[in-house]
Each structure stands twice: as C-alpha cells, then as structure tokens.
C-alpha cells in the first residue's frame, strides 16, 4: 500500500540527497548541482529533478540547489525532526540490536518499549528499555498513541503480533519476520526478509565463482617465483 503521493524509491533517494546536502552545507558549500546529488544517490540528474518535483520548492537555474535550504525542505517533508515513537516485539538478538541502534535518532525514530512472550526475557531491560509481555501491547499502544510497530519475532508468531498492533492503533509496521502478515488496507507493512537478501548476495558470489575459477595457493606461489 502506498497512498503517500510519492513513489517509495523517491522517498529513499530523498534521504540520500538530504544526507549529502547536510554534509555539503557543513563543509561550507552553498550549492550542489543535480549531477552532484545524482552521484551521491547512485541515480541520474534527471531523476534528481523528478524526485525534487515532489517538494514545495525548486533549485535556482544554472546555480543548483542551495544546500542548507534544501536540507531543511527535505527534513520537513520527510518529518525527520518529528519524534516518532515505536514499539518493538521480539527481544531476541535482532530485536535487541535494533533497540540499541543509535542511527534511528537521525531520522527521529525512538523505540520506547520492547515486548516478548518469553518469561525469561519479560521484566529484563535492553539498555534503558523494559521488556513487557505481548498481552500488554494493545492497551499500551492505544494509551500512548503510538503508530509504528516493529516485528522481529519468528514467523509463527508474526501474524498474532501484527493483529495485536493493529488492535492498538498501529498504522505502520516494519516487519523483519519471514511471514508477510495480513493487515487492513489502512495499515502499511514494510517487509524486511533478511534471509532473501542473503540469498541475493550468495547467488552473486556464486556467479562470480562461475565466471572465474578460484585461484589456488600454488598458482599464487608460481606467480611469485616468476616475478622474482
């Protein structure tokens, strides 16, 4: 589901532009061209201009985009400075790593509570965050008006967790389980299947090996002897 009026790939590129604009501004550069921004985001100048057409302001012709001004425009458009509270369900290794990840602060995300069904984890702390039982999730989310949920549970628990989140009023779910939960049309789910991403990397490495047979230690020694 995407009712935002802007393609999701464009949103991701806007974040890349934002980071490059902020860095350039901090270095004292007043303007960046569409070519500079395209290089930073791995795209084309034409795509940069198309992405910026979603913003309420445009760059100056033949001069480029004012770094400080456009960083602020993107910052406001993406809501980066607005605090966004989230809850996370699944206090395993991945859940704890996400809960402690400091980079979320740069995009205004703050995980406020962890949930789990494991009695050995309930009541413990991850950093400053308390681990609560999943049964408490709907009422707490509703009371705190939280709209973002993160799922790092096993696949067999993910649908029940998503149902509990929706019952509490969650409208955006970041799902790291291998199950794609079913939710109402007004709830957005972003599925992050780490296993499938690993398969892509694995296949790429395998294809490299098929193109060029691995070199043995003897081959390396032979080359060294020939060079000496």
Integer-rounded radius of gyration: 23 Å
**Parts with pLDDT < 50 across at least 5 consecutive residues:** none
The order of strands across the largest sheet is 5-6-4-3-7-8-9
Please give the alpha-carbon distance between the first and last residues.
Answer: 63 Å
**Secondary structure tally, helices:** 9
Overall mean pLDDT: 88
Helix coverage percent: 40-55%
DSSP strand (E) fraction?
15-25%
CATH superfamily of the largest domain: NAD(P)-binding Rossmann-like Domain
Report the count of strand segments: 9
Q: Topology as H/E string? A: HEHHEHEHEEEHEHEEHH
Overall CATH class of the largest domain: Alpha Beta
General form: globular
Largest sheet: 7 strands, mixed
Just name the CATH architecture of the largest domain.
3-Layer(aba) Sandwich
Number of domains: 2
CATH topology of the largest domain: Rossmann fold
């Amino acid at each position: 589901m995407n009712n935002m009026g802007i393609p999701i790939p464009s949103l991701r590129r806007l974040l890349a532009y934002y980071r490059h604009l902020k860095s350039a501004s901090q270095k004292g550069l007043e303007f960046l061209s569409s070519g500079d921004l395209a290089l930073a985001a791995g795209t084309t100048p034409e795509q940069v201009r198309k992405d910026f057409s979603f913003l309420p302001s445009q760059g100056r012709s033949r001069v480029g985009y004012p770094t400080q001004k456009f960083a602020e425009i993107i910052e406001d458009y993406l809501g980066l400075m607005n605090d966004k509270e989230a809850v996370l369900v699944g206090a395993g290794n991945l859940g704890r790593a996400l809960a402690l990840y400091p980079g979320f602060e740069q995009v205004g995300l703050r995980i406020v509570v962890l949930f789990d069904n494991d009695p050995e984890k309930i009541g413990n702390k991850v950093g400053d965050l308390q681990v609560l039982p999943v049964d408490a999730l709907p009422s707490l989310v509703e009371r705190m008006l939280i709209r973002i949920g993160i799922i790092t549970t096993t696949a067999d628990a993910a649908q029940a967790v998503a149902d509990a989140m929706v019952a509490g009023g969650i409208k955006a779910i970041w799902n790291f389980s291998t199950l794609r939960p079913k939710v109402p049309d007004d709830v957005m789910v972003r599925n992050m299947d780490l296993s499938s991403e690993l398969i892509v990397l694995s296949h790429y490495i395998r294809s490299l090996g098929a193109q060029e047979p691995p070199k043995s230690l003897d081959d390396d020694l032979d080359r060294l002897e020939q060079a000496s």
